[in-house]
Write a structure and sequence with these properties.
The structure holds two protein chains of two kinds. By secondary structure, chain A is of the alpha+beta class. Chain A is 25% helix and 24% strand. Chain A has 17 helices and 25 strands. In chain A, the strands form five sheets. A seven-stranded mixed β-sheet of chain A has the order 3-5-1-13-10-11-12, sandwiched between helices. In chain A, strands 7, 8, 9, 14, 15 and 16 form a six-stranded mixed β-sheet that branches. A five-stranded mixed β-sheet of chain A has the order 17-18-23-24-25, with helices on both faces. Chain A is globular, with a radius of gyration of 26 Å. By secondary structure, chain B is α+β, with helices and mostly antiparallel strands. Chain B has two domains: 9-85, Beta-grasp domain (Ubiquitin-like (UB roll)), CATH 3.10.20.30; 94-184, DNA polymerase, domain 1 (Orthogonal Bundle). In chain B, 32% of the residues lie in helices and 15% in strands. In chain B, a hairpin with a 2-residue loop joins strand 3 and strand 4 (63-66). In chain B, helix 2 (94-102) crosses helix 5 and helix 3 crosses helix 5. The chains are: A alpha+beta, B alpha+beta. Chain B: This is 2Fe-2S iron-sulfur cluster-binding protein.
Chain lengths: 705, 185
C-alpha cells in the first residue's frame, strides 16, 4: 500500500502526554536494575575508608568463605583495562577504571567488588571485608589559600583578558567588589546508578542507566579493548541523570565480574556510595569586580572563579564563563582556575559553570543596581550587548530583555519599592528579586533511521536517552510533523547502542541533536513516499547523519536566555527563608512539547530553590569524607519547599535549526539562586554571598531594616 | 537464588494486590527487596534503601509505609498494595490518571511512591487527620480544605529530584477533587 498524508495539526508546539506515561504510572516501566536474568549474581562495591594512601592488603579468605560469595575482585586480581584513550567527551576519568593499582586518591575510592548469589549476601560480605591501608596525610580543604591553583581551559579558554581592568575600575563612578561561594553539590537522581553485565554469544551486553548508550558502549569497548560492534548497551528508562550518568565505576566492575565469572552480574550503587562515585559539582569561590559609570554602563567586568578537582583527573567548573555572553565592558577579564585536592573528581551537573557562575554574576549585578540607584532590569537593559561581548560574533537571537519585560509585567515588578527591609507580614520580612539566565544552545552529530512500515505507520530509530526530559515524546512529535502524519502513527525506539551513534542527553543538546537527525531522515522519506512508491513488507527505511549539516553552521553566539523572578519570606526569629512564588520567562528556541517543557523549566527552577537554600555537601577535614552522605544529611528541596512556580516562554525559534530548537534542560536553574538571594536582600537588607542561605547564616547576618 | 529454610530464612506468605505469594526469604530481606528481587514486582522503587526518599512507598492495610524499612517476614498477614495493584484492568486509578494527564513526573522513578503516597494522603485527609500546617486541629473542626499547602506538607516524604513537585501537587489536587465529587454524587 502507499501512505497518504493524513489531515493533522502541527504536533510540535502542542501539549502531548508522555508516550511511555502509562508505563510510568502503573509501575510497568522497567529501569536498569529491574530486568530479570537467569543465574544473576550481585556485586557490592567496597569503598576506601581513608582519603589518601595505599592498599597494603585485603583479607579476602574469610569473606570468600561466607555463604553465597563467589568472588572478590580487587587490584590484585582484576583484569587490566586501557585508560590511555580519548573518548567522545575526552580522556576517561581513571576513577571509573577500577582495581588497576593500590593507590587510594580519595575517601570512597572503589577498592573491591564482592560478588554473591543474593544482594543480602553480597552486602554482608562487602561490609565484612577487611582492607589494610598505609595512610598518608590528605588535603580536602577548599576554603584555604591555594597558591598552586592553575588555569584550565574547558569549552572556552581558561583566561580571557580584554582591556585595562585596573584603569577602567579607577575611572568608574561605582564599583562592586565582592566574593561569592557555592558549596559542593550532588546530583542525586532518584534512581541510583545500576548496571547488569553479561556475555551473550560473544557480545558484551550491558543493561544500564545512563545518558547515552552509544557513549557508554564506546567507552567500554575502548577500556576493555573490544570491537565496538561486540558491545551493546541498553538504557530504556533512566531515573534521572543531571550529568552524573556516564561511565562510572559500577559498570566497569560489573563487566569485569561478568567476564571473570561467566554469569550475569548486577552492580547497583547505594545512595551513600553515590556521594563518592557518581560525580558532583565542585565548590566554587568567585570574585566579582564590576565598575560602572553613574548611569550604570559597565566600564570594567572581572569574574574569577576557583574550583576543585581530584588528583587523578582534571575537571573544571567554569563559573566565570557566563559573563563572556552576558554583559559587555571596556575591560572584560574572566578566569577559571583549578586546585587539586584529595577528593573525588567532580563532573557536569545541571548547568555546569552557568549555575554557580550566574549566582555570583547576577548577585553582583543586583549589588551594582543598588549602588547606582537603578532598577535591576534597567541596569541589565543598559548593558545588553549587540554582539558577543568577548567574541564579537553576532547572536543567533538574544531575547533577554524581552524576557525581563514580559516577566516584569506578569510578576508585578513595576509596583516594587526597591528599598530593602520595608515589607512585613507579622514577624516575616518579604522581598522580591530578579536575575538573568543564559545557557549555550548547541547540537551534536547524530544518526537516525525512519521507516515507513507496510501497515502505514512509521518507526523512528534514534539513539536518544530519556532521562525524564520526555525525549521519546518529543521525537514522536518532531517525526510526525516531518512526515506530515499524526503522532499516533509514529513509534520511536531509543536507548540502545545498536541504534547507532547519537549525541548524549547532556548540555541541553539532546532534543535538538536528535530532532535534527530525525528531521533529515523523515523529510527524505516523505519525499520518496510522495513519488508514490509501493511499500514492501520490510518497509522503506531512510537513514540520516547530521554531522555535515551541523558542521556547516556559521559561527555565532548561540544561547538560550531567561529572566527569573522570586518572592521570599524571611523569618528573622528562626532564620528560615521560604520561597513564596517564582516566575521564569525563557527565550529558549521553539518549544516542542509545552506540557513536558514547562515541567522541565519548573524543575530547573526548583533546583534553583534547592541550590539557594538547601544543598550543601560538607567534608570532614580530618577524615576527608562527608558528613551525612545521604538524603537526610544532604537536603534537596521537598514538596513543602516548593510553592507555585510558573514558567513560560516567548517566541524565539532558532533560525538555523531545522525545527527551531535551542534546548531547555538546564537554563531553568541558571539565575534562579541569584533571584532568590537578591530577594533575601530585598527582604532583609543583608547580602548573602555564600550558598546555601541557611537559617544560621541568616541569623548571624541579622537584618538591616 | 532462594535460600533453604533455616535459622536465617523462612517460608512466608505475602498477600500482595489480592494475591497470595509463598516464598522462602532470608530474614534480612526487606519487603522492598522481596517485591523487586523475588516477586518481580519492580514497580516499587529503591531510591535510598534507608527511609529517606519515599520512592518505595506501598500501602500496608491501606496505610502508606516505606517498604525499605519493613522486613518481608514482618509483612505476613498484612494486605500489601503496590503500584501494580492500583489500576482496574485497563482503567487507571484516578490518581494514576491525574499524574499521566498533568505530567506529574519526569523520569518516573519516584512516581510509584508518589502515587501510593497520594492515595493515602487523600484517605488520611478525608478521615480528618491534621498535618503540620493545619490551622485548627480540634476534632470538631473537621478536615481542613485540601489546599496546595496541605498537599505539599503531606507529600513531603516523597522526594522528586527532577523537581516535578508543582505538577505532582496539581495531580493530587485533581484526584482529590474527583474523589470528593464522586462522594457527593
Amino acid at each position: 500500500m502507499t501512505t497518504a498524508p493524513t489531515a493533522r495539526e502541527n504536533a510540535v508546539g502542542t501539549a502531548h502526554t508522555r508516550v511511555e506515561g502509562r508505563d510510568k504510572v502503573t509501575g510497568a516501566a522497567r529501569y536498569a536494575g529491574e530486568i530479570p536474568f537467569a543465574d544473576l549474581a550481585h556485586g557490592w562495591l567496597v569503598l576506601s575508608t581513608v582519603a589518601r594512601g595505599r592498599i597494603r592488603s585485603i583479607d579476602t579468605a574469610d569473606v570468600l568463605a561466607m555463604p553465597g560469595v563467589v568472588a572478590v575482585l580487587h587490584h590484585g586480581n582484576a583484569p587490566r583495562v586501557e585508560t590511555g584513550y580519548v573518548g567522545m567527551l575526552g580522556v576517561p576519568d581513571p576513577t571509573s577504571a577500577v582495581f588497576q593499582h593500590d593507590r587510594v586518591p580519595h575517601a570512597g575510592w572503589p577498592v573491591a567488588l564482592v560478588v554473591a548469589d543474593t544482594s543480602e549476601q553480597a552486602r554482608e560480605a562487602a561490609e565484612a571485608l577487611v582492607v589494610h591501608y598505609e595512610q598518608e596525610p590528605h588535603d580536602v580543604d577548599f576554603t584555604g589559600e591555594h597558591p598552586d591553583a592553575y588555569p584550565v581551559d574547558s569549552h572556552g579558554p581558561a583566561v580571557i583578558e580584554k582591556g585595562d581592568l585596573e584603569a577602567e575600575l579607577a575611572a568608574s563612578a561605582v564599583v562592586v567588589d565582592a566574593e561569592y561561594t557555592t558549596p559542593e553539590e550532588h546530583h542525586n537522581p532518584m534512581e541510583p546508578h545500576a548496571a547488569t553485565a553479561r556475555w551473550d554469544g560473544g557480545r558484551l551486553e550491558l543493561v544500564d542507566s545512563n545518558q547515552g548508550t552509544f557513549w557508554v558502549a564506546s567507552e567500554l569497548a575502548k577500556m576493555f579493548s573490544l570491537d565496538p560492534a561486540s558491545v551493546r548497551v541498553r538504557s530504556e528508562h533512566v531515573g534521572g541523570g543531571f550529568g552524573s550518568k556516564g561511565l562510572r565505576a559500577h559498570q566497569v566492575a560489573a563487566v569485569m565480574a561478568a567476564t571473570e565469572l561467566h554469569r550475569p552480574v548486577r552492580v547497583v550503587m547505594t545512595r551513600r556510595q553515590m556521594f563518592s562515585l557518581a560525580g558532583y559539582r565542585s565548590p566554587t569561590r568567585q570574585r566579582l569586580r564590576l565598575g560602572a559609570d553613574a548611569d550604570g554602563r559597565l566600564r570594567a567586568l572581572e569574574h574569577r572563579s576557583l574550583s576543585a578537582t581530584s588528583t587523578v583527573h582534571e575537571f573544571i567548573e567554569s563559573a566565570a564563563g557566563p559573563a563572556r555572553t552576558m554583559y559587555g565592558a571596556d575591560a572584560h577579564h574572566t578566569a577559571n582556575r583549578l586546585v587539586r585536592l584529595d577528593v573525588p573528581t567532580p563532573t557536569w551537573m545541571r548547568a555546569p559553570g552557568e549555575a554557580p557562575g550566574s549566582f555570583a554574576l547576577e548577585s553582583a549585578f543586583d549589588e551594582l543596581a543598588e549602588k547606582c540607584g537603578l532598577d535591576p532590569i534597567e541596569l541589565r537593559a543598559r548593558n545588553d550587548p549587540e554582539a558577543g561581548p568577548v567574541s564579537g560574533l553576532p547572536f543567533s537571537g538574544r531575547n533577554l530583555i524581552a524576557c525581563f519585560r514580559e516577566g516584569a509585567r506578569r510578576f508585578g515588578w513595576a509596583d516594587r519599592d526597591p528599598r530593602p527591609g520595608l515589607r512585613r507580614e507579622g514577624r516575616l520580612l518579604l522581598g522580591t528579586g530578579t536575575a538573568a539566565a543564559s545557557f549555550p544552545a548547541g547540537a551534536g552529530p547524530s544518526t537516525a533511521a525512519v521507516t515507513a512500515e507496510a501497515d502505514g505507520t512509521y518507526t523512528v530509530r534514534i539513539n536518544a536517552a530519556d532521562i525524564g526530559t520526555g525525549a521519546r515524546t518529543a521525537m514522536t512529535l518532531v517525526a510526525a510533523d516531518a512526515l506530515r502524519t499524526a503522532p499516533d502513527q509514529v513509534r520511536v525506539r531509543i536507548g540502545d547502542s545498536d541504534l547507532g551513534p547519537a549525541f548524549i542527553a547532556g548540555g541541553s543538546m539532546g532534543t535538538r541533536s536528535w530532532a535534527w537527525a530525525v528531521t533529515i531522515a523523515a523529510e527524505e522519506l516523505r519525499e520518496r513516499l510522495a513519488l508514490g512508491a509501493d511499500i514492501p513488507p520490510e518497509g522503506i527505511t531512510v537513514r540520516s547523519d547530521s554531522t555535515e549539516a551541523i558542521g556547516a553552521l556559521a559561527q555565532k553566539e548561540r544561547h538560550s536566555f531567561g529572566a527569573q523572578f522570586a518572592e521570599v519570606a524571611v523569618d528573622p526569629a528562626t532564620g528560615e527563608v521560604r520561597v513564596r512564588r517564582m516566575l521564569g520567562i525563557f527565550a529558549a528556541g521553539r518549544i516542542v512539547n509545552p506540557l513536558t517543557a514547562r515541567n522541565q523549566f519548573v524543575g530547573g527552577m526548583t533546583w534553583g530553590i534547592s541550590m539557594a537554600l538547601h544543598e550543601e555537601a560538607v567534608r570532614d577535614r580530618a577524615l576527608g569524607s562527608h558528613y551525612g552522605a545521604d538524603l537526610a544529611g544532604y537536603h534537596v528541596a521537598a514538596h513543602a519547599d516548593v510553592p507555585a512556580i510558573e514558567a513560560d516562554w516567548i517566541d524565539d525559534p532558532d533560525p538555523d535549526d531545522p525545527v527551531g530548537i535551542k534546548g531547555i534542560g538546564e537554563i531553568g536553574i541558571v539565575g534562579a539562586a541569584a533571584a532568590i538571594a537578591n530577594a533575601v536582600w530585598h527582604a532583609t537588607g543583608v547580602r548573602h554571598r555564600d550558598l546555601p542561605i541557611r537559617p544560621d547564616r541568616v541569623l548571624m547576618a541579622g537584618v538591616r531594616a | 537464588m532462594a535460600p533453604a529454610p533455616s535459622s536465617t530464612s523462612s517460608d512466608i506468605t505475602l498477600n500482595i494486590n489480592g494475591e497470595k505469594h509463598t516464598l522462602p526469604v532470608d530474614h534480612r530481606t526487606t519487603l522492598l527487596d522481596a517485591l523487586r528481587e523475588r516477586l518481580d514486582l519492580t514497580g516499587t522503587k529503591k531510591g535510598c534503601d534507608q527511609g529517606q526518599c519515599g520512592a518505595c512507598t506501598v500501602l500496608l492495610d491501606g496505610r502508606r509505609a516505606v517498604s525499605c524499612l519493613q522486613l518481608a517476614v514482618a509483612a505476613e498477614g498484612r494486605e500489601i498494595t503496590t503500584i501494580e495493584g492500583l489500576a482496574d484492568g485497563d482503567r487507571l486509578h484516578p490518581v494514576q490518571q491525574a499524574f499521566l494527564d498533568l505530567d506529574g513526573y519526569q523520569c518516573g522513578y519516584c512516581t510509584p511512591g508518589q502515587i501510593c503516597s497520594a492515595i493515602a494522603v487523600i484517605e488520611e485527609h478525608a478521615a480528618g487527620w491534621p498535618s503540620a500546617v493545619t490551622d485548627d486541629v480540634r476534632p470538631e473542626a473537621g478536615p481542613p480544605p485540601l489546599s496546595p499547602e496541605e498537599i505539599r506538607e503531606r507529600m513531603s516524604g516523597n522526594l522528586c529530584r527532577c523537581g516535578a513537585y508543582v505538577s505532582i501537587a496539581q495531580a493530587v489536587a485533581r484526584a482529590a477533587e474527583a474523589k470528593t465529587g464522586e462522594a457527593a454524587a
